[in-house]
Amino acid sequence: MPVTGFDHVSYPTDDSERFLEFYKRLGFKVLGEERWRSGKSPIFSIQIGDASMINVHPGGFRPPAHLRGRGARPGCADFCFVWDGTVEDVLAMLDRAGVQPVEGPVPRRGGRGAGAVPSQSVYIQDPDGNLLEFMVYDSQ
């Protein structure tokens, strides 16, 4: 199959300032914030690694219905991020950010090695209620 990964996903938020503050506390890089604040862009993005991003649709921005998922409402997302470090590093980052896990660390199997590589996951929720999973693959 010629699909090699995700470039971006998009989802909405009702409170852009709260959203930005939360993701910045976690250490994510924000793309296009200045253009969004100046009114030159209707959206901003959160960078994921060096090849993917989350396009954020601030309150009031509504793309045409045929270019949006029918269930796209704040709190509709469930993301799993691969963490390059240890579970202890994830927990320390969350502690510094003042964010409590809702579950974990717990054993999981993700997409790596077609599900054959074990991992540990820690789950949190963002202010909109989106579920964020930080997956740490076992070294092999």
Structural notes for this entry:
- This protein is of the alpha/beta class and 140 residues long.
- It folds into 2 domains: 1-61, Signal recognition particle alu RNA binding heterodimer, srp9/1 (2-Layer Sandwich), CATH 3.30.720.120; 75-140, 2,3-Dihydroxybiphenyl 1,2-Dioxygenase, domain 1.
- It has helices spanning 16-25, 33-37, 87-97, and strands at 8-12, 30-31, 44-48, 52-57, 78-82, 103-109, 118-125, 131-137.
- It has a 4-stranded mixed beta sheet with strand order 1-4-3-2. A 4-stranded mixed beta sheet has the order 5-8-7-6, with helices on one face.
- The longest helix has 11 residues, at 87-97.
- It starts with 7 loop residues before the first strand and ends with a strand.
Low-confidence stretches are none
Number of strands: 8
**Helix proportion range:** 10-25%
CATH architecture name of the largest domain: Roll
Main β-sheet, in a few words? 4 strands, mixed
Supply the helix-strand structural class: alpha/beta
Which properties best describe this structure?
140 residues; Signal recognition particle alu RNA binding heterodimer, srp9/1; 3 helices; 4-stranded mixed sheet; 2 domains; alpha/beta; 2,3-Dihydroxybiphenyl 1,2-Dioxygenase, domain 1
Report a brief summary of the structure:
The chain has 140 residues and is an alpha/beta fold. Helix content is 19%, strand content 32%.
